[in-house]
Amino acid sequence: MNTQNQNPAIILLNPQMGDNIGASARAMLNFGLTDLRLVAPRDGWPNIAATQNSAGALDIVKVTLFDTLAEASADLHYTLITSARRRDMIKPVFSPQNGAKELRTRTATGQKTAFVFGPERAGATNEDISHCNGIITIPTNPDFSSLNLGQSVLLIAHEWLKLEETMADKTLEMNDTFPVPHQQMDEFLTRLENELVGRNFFRTQEILPTMTLNIKNMFTRCDLSDQEVRTLHGIISALISPKRRS
Amino acid sequence: MNTQNQNPAIILLNPQMGDNIGASARAMLNFGLTDLRLVAPRDGWPNIAATQNSAGALDIVKVTLFDTLAEASADLHYTLITSARRRDMIKPVFSPQNGAKELRTRTATGQKTAFVFGPERAGATNEDISHCNGIITIPTNPDFSSLNLGQSVLLIAHEWLKLEETMADKTLEMNDTFPVPHQQMDEFLTRLENELVGRNFFRTQEILPTMTLNIKNMFTRCDLSDQEVRTLHGIISALISPKRRS
Q1: Which candidate, A63, A78, A80, A65, places its Cα nearest to that of A28?
Q2: Closest-CA residue of chain A to B29
Q3: What residues of A are in contact with residue B56 (Cβ under 8 Å)?
Q4: Which of B56, B145, B155 sits opposite A154 (nearest CB)?
Q5: Which pLDDT value is given to residue A127?
Q6: CB-CB: which of B29, B55, B141 is closest to A30?
Q7: Contact residues, chain A, for B26 at CB < 8 Å
Q8: What is the pLDDT of residue A54?
Q9: Which residues of B touch A138 (CB under 8 A)?
Q10: Which residue of B has its CA nearest to A55?
Q11: Per-residue confidence (pLDDT) for residue B172, from 0 to 100
Q12: Whole-number pLDDT of residue B165
């Protein structure tokens, strides 16, 4: 078990504007976060606008590039994605403060975590959301809710740092379970989907994306441990093996 | 007694950049605040950069111009100013969340309140700070604490809106005192200072500013009611009147 106590990463999905990446890096460092993971930034990387708008933060914040959210979160145990409240998904929804508390509690037991942010305007896709373990919804004026990316990162990172003093000594109160890293969960889900496709579970092509998302959501919100996922693999293996003659 | 339940005003002291005023207005409206008071903005008002950076918020946020903080806060009962922690002043210091709670509690009894922000870079002066009833310090990474004005307003306004649901029904728990508006407090302090100057209380000119600030801080943190200030006036009047012959 990893017992190292790490701060959450910030994952930006397909960020469009270099300005916003720079502002996000600056906001991160303001509140002590230094692990920035960029998934397919529109204008590539490095980005001059990002550097200029980071007020020097990009000298310290470590940036890593990924092609997909799955790759960016492969080593992480628990991720929360910022999104408007979703009525079409069964998914835990946190306030920024409670989301930060959840990640504090988890990092205190050595879990690796991240706050995930969708791209400007379009926001996170259903696929992105179903990949993550829960949603953070920032409360805003319903008549004027236009937070930009850098502002969203700022608010969440602020909630994280705020809890630094108040959350001390929570480590001992944690129970012993350890959730599976995203990579192993993905492998499981991919295997499951393949097995299902191979058995014509999805009766039409149209139904496949929605049903796949529903399945992902179901498993990602369960907080499964490594051991439980190994058990699930075993169950699949058993189920797909030929029935023994009795 | 004013029993109307009003949101806090945002007071910006000598804001320099129109961009920051626009970002502040936008952040205010994101979290439902609409009373923006500008004290002597450097580039005058209206300001094109502010309008452009407000994402339309300045169509709804009401802007009022003032020459001084005293004028901008004349009708207000309680103000908190954002500043780094001050060891040279005896003044209540709030976290953003507790500062927002304090103002929630007060507005619930009909008090008029504001969050006050000093100018970019220079920050609030000692005089500004001593005028307000308390300080809000935003916790940041000590090695990288460069929040800009719009970001500070965003964080504070977010703390305000967050409490909307959780603070319901606090009205009945309030006690009956009502703090004096700033204007009456200022009149009292000015009178006191004049009386002291006239009596050579400040032995040197150099000592006057510091001692005046200390006196202001002492009174503004006391949460005095109208009645108590009237009593203080009475005390001054009594003290300065000639001693009666016995």
Answers
A1: A63
A2: A144
A3: 144
A4: B155
A5: 86
A6: B141
A7: 146
A8: 95
A9: 158
A10: B146
A11: 28
A12: 61
Mean pLDDT calculated for residue range A140-156 = 91
What amino acid occupies position A112?
Answer: K
How would you classify residue B120: left for phi > 0, otherwise alpha for psi between -120 and 50, otherwise beta? beta
Give the span between the Cα atoms of B77 and B39, in whole angstroms: 18
Q: Return the closest-CA partner of residue A158 out of B190, B46, B27.
A: B27
User: A162 contacts in B (CB within 8 Å)?
Assistant: 95-97, 139
Q: Give me the pLDDT at residue B87, please.
A: 65
Helix%, strand%, coil% for chain A, nearest 5 = 45, 15, 40
Pick from B131, B133, B139: which is nearest to B155 by CA?
A: B139
State the smallest CA–CA distance between residue A23 and chain B in angstroms: 10
Cβ contact (<8 Å) for A57 and B144? yes
Cβ–Cβ contacts within 10 Å for residue B226, how many?
A: 16
CB contact under 8 A, B147 and A31: no
Q: What is the pLDDT of residue A177?
A: 55
3-state secondary structure of A135: strand
CA distance A194 to chain B (A): 44
| Cα separation, B214 vs B168, whole angstroms | 36
Q: What does each C-alpha distance from B25 to B45, B49, B169 come to in angstroms?
A: 14, 12, 29
Q: Which chain A residues are closer than 8 Å to B139 by Cβ?
A: 31, 161-162, 164
pLDDT, tens only, A156-210: 999 999 887 654 333 322 235 567 788 888 899 998 888 888 877 887 888 888 8
Report pLDDT digits (tens) over A77-107: 899 999 986 666 777 889 999 999 999 988 9
- Terminal-to-terminal C-alpha distance of chain B: 42
C-alpha distance from A145 to closest chain B C-alpha (Å): 5
pLDDT at position B207 is 83
Is the CB of residue B85 less than 8 Å away from at least one CB of chain A? no
Q: Which residues contact A149 (CB under 8 A, 6 or more apart)?
A: A12, A15, A17, A20, A23, A24, A117, A119, A120
> Are B45 and B18 a contacting pair, CB within 8 Å?
no
Residue with the bigger pLDDT between B5 and B25: it is: B25
Residue of chain B minimizing CA distance to A96 = B162
Instruction: Please state the length of chain A.
Output: 246
Specify the amino acid at residue B190. Answer: T
pLDDT tens-place string over residues B164-174: 765 433 332 22
